[in-house]
């Protein structure tokens, strides 16, 4: 997971975001398995993209980052359209 994290984001922050964050976007057409964007702002805004394999009961962390105004809407939760 270290290679997927932005510098300064700690593993514990990502795990906490997964536990208490809210799903703000879903990507059901992603392959090989669907993914979702989770937002948490407990200590600071954090977005985590995960893929959940319900058959294997496994959660794959794809990336984690602190959102900025270039990539998200002003609410700091909603990803801007591509």
Automatic annotation (TrEMBL):
InterPro entries: DUF4258 (IPR025354). This is DUF4258 domain-containing protein. The lineage of its organism: Bacteria, Pseudomonadati, Pseudomonadota, Gammaproteobacteria, Chromatiales.
